[in-house]
Amino acid sequence: MINVSKEYKKSVYAPIRSCKARIKFKILDYKAYKNIKKVSSRAEISRENQLTNNIRIPNLKYATFEKDFFKLDGSFNIPPKRNEGNVEIGWLSENLCDDKYIFSIPEKIELEFETERSSMGITIYFDVLNEEYATDFDIDFYSANNTLISHDSISNNTLIK
Questions:
Q1: Whole-number mean pLDDT of the chain?
Q2: How far apart are CA 20 and CA 24, in angstroms?
Q3: Which of 4, 79, 85, 140 has the greatest CB tally within 10 Å of its CB?
């Protein structure tokens, strides 16, 4: 081994030489992505087939007809028609909520699998670019024979993911 000074040994482990990484580890059942998607309503620009495509962030901020939402500051884009372009939009409901952010008829997304599946959990992503998310919602899991397995009510949510 080569003899080196204490200063050299100290500098080898200096913070400037430190390297850190963040790894996101997922175990996914890709066959589960091929399921039947049902939604209670959909906006004309909605692309509910993107609900399970494993892309979490839309391409752009799109203008919608929500009151006081579409700012003319250049940050919003006119959305393409349903059959135009390969862009990530995701699902948008046809209905708008009231001034208290409540839908008169709750919106629903249903995913039906061809075969029974087991799951360790679920991650729900909302609109990250517009910072829009549901504050109160329910998640229900059913068995193949339509028996309720699990019911979770989420209240006062402040997370986009």
A1: 81
A2: 14
A3: 79
- pLDDT tens digit sequence for 111-134: 888 777 777 777 888 888 888 888
- b/e code 97-134 from CB counts within 10 Å (16+ = b): eeeeeeeeeebeeeeeeeeeeeeeeeeeeebeebeebe
Beta strands in the chain (DSSP E): 36-39, 109-112, 137-142, 148-154
Backbone φ, ψ for residue 32 (5° rounding): -70, -20
Query: How many residues are listed for the chain in this entry?
Result: 161
Cα 14 from Cα 33, distance rounded (Å): 46
Distance linking the first and last C-alpha atoms of the chain? 51
- Residue 109, classed as helix, strand or coil, is strand
How many of the other CB atoms lie within 10 Å of CB of 76?
Answer: 17
For residue 28, the model assigns a pLDDT of 65
